[in-house]
# Entry
Amino acid sequence: MSEEWKEVVAEWVGESAFQGRNPAGRYVQMGSIQGQPGISPMELMLIGVAGCTGMDVISILSKKRQKFDKLLISIRGKRAETHPRVYTEIEVIYQLWGDQVDPKMVEHAIHLSEEKYCSVSAMLSAKATIRSKYIIHQPDESVLPV
# Structure
């Protein structure tokens, strides 16, 4: 078991804004500064789910030799009405573009990510019900996010 700590910083940069940074110098703005809205911490949690499960799904499908051109993950969350206003429901929609993508392999990859590999989903599922679905599109099909 890894005992390595992960470390990031969040620095106040004025008004209600913070800049979150990792050791590599990558950053994200949270809150608003000079009228420019950033990403809220709760939105970052949803983005974290998308990134975490997306990396898993791409890795698993690549190992299964599934060829696709694009993967788009849309997520929405419903929060409790009382504080601390945690997410109570999260819906994840995976959209893949490819003409030879096996739906059973997509289902299996999503299942493995949600049940075994995605640590972000695992933490959030302690408080929120997480539901997911997927859609496979043809490579030339243009679709707006669901």
Remarks:
- The longest strand covers residues 87-97.
- The two ends are 38 Å apart (CA to CA).
- The domain at 41-137 is CATH 3.30.300.20 (GMP Synthetase; Chain A, domain 3).
